[in-house]
Amino acid sequence: MKLGFKKIILVVIIGMLVGSGCNSPSTTSVPSSSGDTLIAMVEKEIAKKKEREKAIQRFRTRYLPPYFDRKIQEYYPIIRKYSKRYGIDWRLIVVQILKESYFKENARSEVGAMGLMQIMPRTAREITRELDIERIAKDPRENIAAGIYHLYKQLKYFPEADPVNRLKLALAAYNCGPGRIFDARDIARYKQRDPNSWEAVREYLTMLTPEHWQLHLEVWEQGVPPHGYFYGYEQTIDYVDDIYENYQLIKHMF
Asked: What share of the chain is helix, strand, coil (3-state, %, to 5)?
């Protein structure tokens, strides 16, 4: 096992403490078992760091386009500006853009979502009225501003959730619309689960399809999810998990 210089010094110091103790008669020597525990802790931290470095390298290879550095330089000011305005970590937005569009300005989904942040036309019209920006579909910087603002709006739907769950619920709402999340939370409450837990909501997103009609009759008077059946839950679950995992990695890069 190769150790960094500082870690080698730490292990040597631990060994000296264990082997010789202190010269003062009033000081009790450190038991060897304690020294072994400290060394094991150091080794564990080294192993964790190596595994994280491997994960970061996989992230670079799989997710970062060859033009990534150039795109970051180009869009960092606008990402930073609006992330700071709405209290969101700019690195999260970078990962979200990678997931949404791979930093391709002209990206357009099959359902009509547009630009770097993949804003739907209806959402773009709402944001145009609220922020007085009109070129969301054509101006990449306005698209970023609109996307960050839209994520901020989703965060406001879940004020009682802890920070991690609030972020995951907001990302899910960004992807599939808040209505689907509200319906899954209704089922969570019916099942006496925490509606502010992403794990619970994640589970019940899968139950918004017609085959769960008996459950729907128990949860809702009308017998169907208020926001309609939902078939895209796998995409939403992947969206949240993927972004959150890569967000943890990119925080070690910037």
From this structure: 65, 0, 35
> Phi/psi of residue 69, each to 5°?
-60, -40
Tokens of 162: 């802890």
Can you state the angle between helices 198-205 and 163-176, rounded to 10 degrees? 30
The pLDDT assigned to 3 comes to 46
Q: Domain spanning 68-155 has what CATH number? A: 1.10.530.10
Alpha-carbon gap, residue 230 to 204, rounded angstroms? 11
Cα–Cα distance measured from residue 122 to residue 112, given in angstroms and rounded to the nearest whole number: 10
The domain ranges of the chain are 5-20+29-63, 68-155, 163-234
pTM of the model: 0.81
In terms of average pLDDT, the best of 16-25, 131-140, 144-153, 245-254 is 144-153
